[in-house]
Amino acid sequence: MATPTPASAPPRPAPAGLIARALSGDVAWSFRHSWSARISALVLLILFAAAILAPWLANQNPYDIGELSLFDSELPPAWAEGGDARYWLGTDTLARDVYSSILYGLRLSLIVGFASVALAAVVGISLGLLGGFVGGIVDAAIMRFADVLLSFPTILVALLVNGIMRGALPPAQHQQAAIWVLILAIGLTNWVQYARTVRSSTMVERNKEYVQAARINGVSRAGIMVSHILPNVLGPVLVIATINLGMAVLTEATLSFLGVGMPATQPSLGTLIRIGNEYLFSGIWWVVIFPSVVLVALVLAVNLLGDWLRDALNPKLR
Prior knowledge:
This protein is mainly α.
């Protein structure tokens, strides 16, 4: 008598929920097997947490004159000769704690970076969708304007926009509006990459069957662009936004280093580097070295994470 074959094991149920599907996807697998992505994400997590928790982690508020004492100015780091244990990374010429200034400056740099990337993404995605879907003279006008912007260096365009914005404001409001001027200057400079990428993807998607079906069902052009095409072109946009965050922070630091960014009373990382560079040859090296190290770590981590994300979302590399 033949022995019955054992019943096959029931199929394993697919993970339920958005988080479970994300954790079991190709991108999550790639992240778990990429040491550079894990280290970059850890560095960014530490820097983001330090910026958010700056009021609680800092030894002083560097923007509050009442907490400063000129007797503590130009102190070296705590481990150096003449250092003070209260100031781990030393103080600058205004007696501001360098460690506290880095935390608050990192917060300002990240605010400018995220806000300018969001502005550039909104403008670029909107113009790219419009040009790629409508075509014709609208597409030609948008792309020719984008080509003109690409023919100039990014920092030069940012300086031009920054100068126009500052010229339109009264001199008394320059310091108060400095962060908004920086966001507009950087955001209105970096939208071209989003527009060109979204336009090319939209020109491919607009001829597919689901778009034709939406047209037959009477969906408006705006509805097709927002509800049908936009979700299918966001993959490359996410990669561009990640890499552009590092570029935006670096652009803000460059503008602040040139003296047209954040004022000395509200220093970002670039402003701290500019202030420290003025006294570098006087032996006060710590004021410029430590903010520079934090800026390099931030930009490098963002770029490495963006490179990993680009490879992880590329189906040809799977």
